[in-house]
Amino acid sequence: MEVRHRIDFFDSEIIVYARDDTSFQVSINSTTTPLGLGNILETYTSEQMAIQAAERFFQIYSIAKENGYYLQNDYFTKPDKEKIHVTFIINSDYSAEQLAAQFI
Questions:
Q1: Which phi and psi angles does 48 have, rounded to 5°?
Q2: Which string of b and e fits 6-25 if b means at least 16 CB within 10 Å?
Q3: Res 34: pLDDT
Q4: The model's pTM
Q5: Which DSSP string corresponds to the chain?
Q6: φ/ψ of residue 88, rounded to 5
Q7: pLDDT digits (tens, 9 = 90+) for 23-69
């Protein structure tokens, strides 16, 4: 696998890996305790789609962290709030304002 895109994020990295010419994985990996390919969030059929999803995940995770959420497996989680599935939110067409409203 080849790294095609990388975003440093707090103590993690959001990475797009190319498995082959038609399979691109978006994952998050801890920089403090890196293990393998990290937590694979989603797989896409084009590199451009995967990069866009990685950038969107970065935006969404920033908003989530500002509102007290943390990433637990495939969900944004906050005590006493409903969990929000990562792939649902990164594949949505929500605007920045609509995204922020999801994490209030």
A1: -60, -45
A2: ebebeebbbbbbbeeeeebb
A3: 65
A4: 0.88
A5: -EEEEEEEETTEEEEEEEEETTEEEEEEEESSS--TT-EEEEEESSHHHHHHHHHHHHHHHHHHHHTT-EEETTEEE-TTS--EEHHHHHTS---HHHHHHHT-
A6: -60, -45
A7: 999 999 988 776 666 889 999 999 999 999 999 999 999 999 999 99
